[in-house]
Model the fold of this input.
Amino acid sequence: MSRLMKNEGCPKSNYMNMDINIYKGQIWKKSSSKVYSPELLGLLESKDALVILKNGEPPFHVVIGVPHQAAVGVTTIAENWTNPRGRKGRDSDENAASFALAVFSELCDQKIPCKLVIAAHSTDHDPNKDANSPYCKEVFSEKTHFLLECHGAGEQRKQDIEISAGTNSLGNALDFGRQLATKLNYQYSLSAQIEAGSNKAKSISKDKEIDTTLVLPALETTSLIQAEKREIAALHLEAKPRFRISENDDSISADGLILGNAIAEVILLKGNL
Ligand SMILES: [Zn+2]
Done:
């Protein structure tokens, strides 16, 4: 009898099964040092965990999404998933949650209603490429005006920061990029998409803007497309390892903290979006 009850031959039964954690604890162990609280660090380094942090009630001013979070040193996620082109797994965005947490933490200090959704190391799907994933469902479960997705780029990427709206015509990547570059005092190289649906971009520096192309314009990203259907402006931001990998695995990097605070300032500038 028991053998018949077994759920053998049904490999998809746990497909996209993420453990949902609504985290209400402290973000930083000590706010001055920006070291993660051990409980939060444990979640950020776990697998198949959706980590949700909320401040205030919807409608949220912004939902910040981190679909490809993984522990530092873990370079591949979705290892049990094969993409439509037949490739197994995908690159992770090691510790991309770090600068997203800095944004969230700063917005909390400013009493801005906002939500942070982190997909920590999904093993069997790509969280922002499937509208039915737990990540996408959570991102769109409550009303918001703006979705900002935080990603990682590799060390070889030509620009430190790349911003795109994908095909989302409500997200103005160039405007956001110009304001972010100003807030960062032009100390990093930054490129931003000129118009939705295109890979054409401007490389923004203090004295000039130069035509360039985006390495990853995110034109096929489901979450950005789904956002537009819900009249939500959305942007995709990629940041190189210097913004994500700290000397100590349990804290945010100095550049990540600068980037997170600057992003928060731009979000605050944009008022009610
Ligand atoms: Zn990513």
User: Anything to note?
Assistant: Confidence is low (pLDDT under 50) at residues 1-12. Residues 18-269 form a domain with the Aminopeptidase fold (CATH 3.40.630.40). The longest strand covers residues 62-70. The radius of gyration is 18 Å.
